[in-house]
Amino acid sequence: MNKHFLQIESLAKRYPQPGRQADITVFDQVNFQMDRGEFVCIIGHSGCGKSTILNVLAGLDEASDGTVIMDGKEVKGPSLDRGVIFQNHSLLPWLSALDNVCMAVRSRWPGWSRSKVREHAARYLEMVGLKGAEHKKPSQLSGGMRQRVGIARAFAIEPKLLLMDEPFGALDALTRGVIQDELLKIWSRTQQTVFMITHDVDEAILLSDRILLMTNGPEARIAESVKVDIDRPRDRATLHQHPGYYAIRNHLVDFLVNRSRELQGAKIESPRSDAPVQPREVNPVAESGGRPLGPRAVPASA
Amino acid sequence: MSTDTVNAAGIRPLPTARRKSWPAGWMEPLRQGLIYPALGIGGLLAVWWYGGWIIANNDDLYAFADFAPGPTFAALYQMVASGAVWDPIASSLSRVGFGLLWAILIGVPLGIGIGYWAVARQITHVPFQFLRMISPLAWMPIAVLAFATWDAAIIFLIAVAAVWPITYATAHGVQKIDPLWFKVARNLGADSPQMLRRIVLPAVSQDIFAGIRLAVGVAWIVLVPAEYLGVTSGLGYAINDARDTLEYDKLAAIVLVIGMIGYLLDAVCVKLIKRTSWRQAD
Q1: So what's the ipTM on this one?
Q2: Architecture of the domain delimited by A6-81+161-287
């Protein structure tokens, strides 16, 4: 068996229910792998436990069952190997943009000199297009600029795994597009391994190599792993003209509208009974045979 | 008729428009920084002067005429010129300073504790609210028994008065800390002391100073009656002494000094609050 960079094995989260014997299972049998340099998005309806999975990967939450192995080591507790970008920028309001990044850089490399820390932080701020705004406080920055500082902070510590929890959820559509482009640019430069939660199907297609689809909670699973077979670099403006684009998009939308509910709590078939249940691997582009599909090809609910 | 009132009222928006068109805008700061405060001070002086005039013209109260502005400022000038004013100020300020220092050393950690742990908040609620409501001066007999020197007793009274505003302002600030900041710090590998230094203290420093500002007010008020007892120095003692020797002009001058120093202490606190404030000034 080949070793993956990140292995998630039979992860489960249960909460005790007040007044009842049985615990409530948010998700279980969550198994997936990620390779180094891969960009993976996870999509699912609210309540399926996406954020909990992310928090477990970050070491900020504990799973009830299962293990996370990164780079051959089990993940226990938070570590600077795993950077997180939260939905709300989460900058410290009393520090300037630069100092927010510097604080993270200093904790990653405590031995660095002051000037080296600042230089490193400034480089990452420049990468997200914030040159000239380094000394502004978060309250003086727009929502999009704050989120960029958050991105710069997370990339600056050069984590082995970058976790993003709906990083653009709070931004308006225009700003979101611009920052997605910035993110793609940095990502292609750094080859960072990224695990990202999103609700936005188009965002997922634009950014990721693979999209994990979760069924509804409780008892949510990762049902499918959808390959985004579109060459990089991708361009937001022309992405929808790619022949495979609608094949993927329709597949995702169909899953979210119909199958995420139908598959809730269902056992996902495993090729071997002793092997852990893996998400079904899907490549809509290959399945459509490269035949371009229109936007209206979403199958109706069964 | 309606057009008339509009026209009449139309004069009022004019200054606003003109003010905007002046690039320097020098009139507004002048007004706010000088003219308005001067009007306030002038009003107070007028009331004082009028009160003095009434007393001076009343046969029953004539003996207290020295409370009026004229004799008071003359006495103040004399006290400043002779240097007699500095000794009581120095002893009073040092008592308040030490009292506040103790209140901060106790109040800030206490406030962080009860702000951070809900259980601590619930356990301490009744006893602390109970103690807070007892006038610090009520502790006077106990303080005198418990402490060897009068000075220590007064410092204790000031600390007792000042500790509550500092504790509760700090606790309030801690409760308002965004839990996400702790998450960020944890993700960056911060341990508890680092969390305290990097997140909690910078987040609540402005609340601490707001508490200190309230505490300074209370402490300065408690100081004077506390100095009526036992000690032979300080502004409170000086007031008592002036009363006993019937030097009402000197008494009023000391009252003036107390007010001015209180105002300055408050202004320093306001500066510190502004300095440490990170919340958006909206």
Answers
A1: 0.75
A2: 3-Layer(aba) Sandwich (3.40)
- Residue B39 is part of which domain span? 2-57
Say which of B186, B203, B279 has its CB closest to residue A78: B186
Assess if residue B160 is contained within a domain: yes
Task: Parse chain A into domains and list their residue ranges.
Answer: 6-81+161-287, 91-158
Closest Cβ opposite residue B180 in set A58, A90, A137 = A90
Band of the pLDDT at B101, cuts 50, 70, 90? very high
Q: What pLDDT, in 10s, does the model give residues B118-168?
A: 999 999 999 999 999 998 889 888 998 999 998 999 999 999 999 999 999
For residues B206 and B173, the answer to whether their CB atoms sit within 8 Å is yes
Which site among B188, B206, B274 would you substitute to test the A interface, given the most A Cβ atoms closer than 10 Å to its Cβ? Answer: B188
CATH code where residue B172 lies = 1.10.3720.10
* CB-based burial, B246-259: b 16+ in 10 Å, e otherwise: ebbbbbbbbbbbbe
**How far apart are alpha carbons B129 and B127 in whole angstroms?**
6
In a domain, B272, yes or no: yes
pTM of the model: 0.77
CA A121 – CA B181 distance, rounded (Å): 19
Q: Between β-strands A280-282 and A222-227, what pairing exists: parallel, antiparallel or unpaired? A: parallel
Q: What is the pLDDT of residue B1?
A: 42
pLDDT tens-digit profile of A207-265? 999 999 998 878 888 888 999 888 888 888 888 888 888 989 999 999 988 888 888 76
- Residue A137 token pair: 């406080």
Task: Give start and end residues of each alpha helix (H) in chain A.
Answer: 50-58, 97-108, 114-127, 143-156, 173-190, 201-207, 245-254, 260-262, 284-287
Q: Does A83 touch chain B (CB under 8 A)?
A: yes
| pLDDT on residue A291 | 62
Total count of domains within chain B: 2
Tell me which residues of chain A, numbers 138 to 157, contact chain B at a CB-CB cutoff of 8 Å.
139, 157
A60 CB near a chain B CB, below 8 Å? Answer: yes
Interface test with B, best of A90, A96, A106 (most B CBs within 10 A): A90
> What's the one-letter identity of residue A204?
A
Share of chain A above pLDDT 90, in %: 28
Cis peptide before A167 (omega within 30 of 0): no
